[in-house]
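To whoever is on call:

I kicked off a structure prediction for a single chain this morning and the downstream step that reads the tokens threw a length-mismatch warning. I double-checked the sequence; it's 263 residues and nothing unusual in it as far as I can see. Pasting both halves so you can look.
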Amino acid sequence: MLKRLHEEFDCIFERDPAAQSFWEIITIYPGVQAILMHRITYRLWTRGFRWFARLIAYLSRWWTGIEIHPGAKIGRRLFIDHGMGVVIGETAVIGDDCTLYHGVTLGGTSWTKGKRHPTLGNSVVIGAGAKVLGPITVGDGARIGSNSVVLRNVPPGATVVGIPGHFVNPNRQIQEQQRRAIASKIGFDAYGMTPDMPDPVAHAVNHMLDHIQKLDEQVEALKRTIERHGIEMHQPPLPNLEPCQLEQGDDGDASVIKAGGND
């Protein structure tokens, strides 16, 4: 028992740099208190003392702000950070070394008996406010972004974001670096805009940046071909692209646009 408690506390020191001591964790960390109470209620539930288990779970929710059904199966070293608003349903299964942030719901999508809540593998991280609903499986090492709504299975190691949840392309990093380089030339801040965002404007701008990148590559290839054939090209300098700025007009409105350049 003491070994299990020490194990639960060690995982918090690893994942929460704000943790200072064992005494602090056991006295003022609601996630730890809720999990310890669930260890008791789960044993009562599996031994047939179901009303008493529900009563203790109810008191635990009142005390911690975290609702865990006594029938949920929770593995070792679960860390519920902050915790307020977390809901874990009756048939939910959580593997080892998982992390849940505040506002997470592991809920059901039907009123029928039987398995109706998610199953999480090992080392799953679910961001604040995310909803994982239905008898789906989230594979080992998966990541679910904040405020996402996940209604389908998630393969191991995948990252899911958005409403409804969709997978993030793991190979998009190079493409994003190219987009940001082009965006910086034209004075556009592309930070945080990815093709996975549901915003249609961001999606259109990202495709425009991809198109500009390909045009630059084609122009450079054309110039090299012309130079290899000994043809001289008159190349006037291109204007420096700087962010557009709004200037206040005489009438007090910000209606005059000034773009930087060599003009």
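Update from on-call: the warning came from a stale cache, not from the record. Cleared it. Sanity check on the structure: Residues 169-232 form one domain.
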